[in-house]
Amino acid sequence: MNTQTLALAFLAATAIGGVAWVFLYPSLSGEKKAEARRSSVARPEPAARQADKNQRSRREQVEGTLKELDARRQKDKKVALSTRITQAGLSWSTQKFWIISGVLAAVAFMLTFIAGGGPLGSAGMAFAAGFGLPRWILNFLKKRRETAFLKALPDAVDVIVRGIKAGLPLFESIKVVAADAPEPLKGEFLAIIETQTIGMPLGEACARLFERMPLPEANFFGIVIAIQQKSGGNLSEALGNLSKVLRDRKKMREKIQAMSMEAKASAGIIGSLPPIVMLLVWITTPDYIALLWTHSTGQLMLVACLLWMACGILVMKKMINFDF
Fold this sequence. Notes:
Helix content: over 70%
Radius of gyration: 35 Å
Number of helices: 16
């Protein structure tokens, strides 16, 4: 019994001592005073608090600008025919495009029908010439224009950076690029100058470059200018970094193109074999293959083969094209 009492007394004294150590030792040892003194020394000054507030405000402005631009891109995701014509660098109206498409469809139908292709084959050729061929031409012109734009854009950004470092305003630097740059870069920067002249803010005018030239590089340029116009900052440094990014993307694109050339050559050979074999058979034994366009069953088979060949070509194109 005495042993149990002593043990309980020892445990109680230990508990009381521990509680006293936790609550009384900091006050007795001066640790609270030292902690208060360290906090007062480390407390930020009003200027530091103001700088931190300004930094948070600028970050919020940048995030707001990016969200606004992204919302605009999502809203305008569906491209109208008039916009596609503009992106191809043509000055046609939508009515003129449809007239040319109708003329091509009529000519293809008449030529195929006169050559003995039959109504079904003539209708297929008319659809391909009136609907597919004009859009293929638009895409071809658009890609060629985008390639020329990407080739000249890094040098144009470097000219703007050097102009800003020399003391020229941003608008004057853009004028220098518009005066000396090759097409289509010259026309796009002239459009920026014209839209800014009629009263649109320069940041918004540069952001609209992406609508006429739907490239990530053009989007980068518009975002950098728009953010700088809204939140300020070192524009020459930002554009210098953008120029470096553009050149790195160009190197990556060329590297990807070199690595995918073998697959593209294989796809070209595989896709061209059926038409070549068909042409050789027609040269050697025309009566044997003529059933494909003189008989109704042969015409159906020919249309089905063309559809399957188109599907195969699109699948191969999807496999060998890389986005980054």
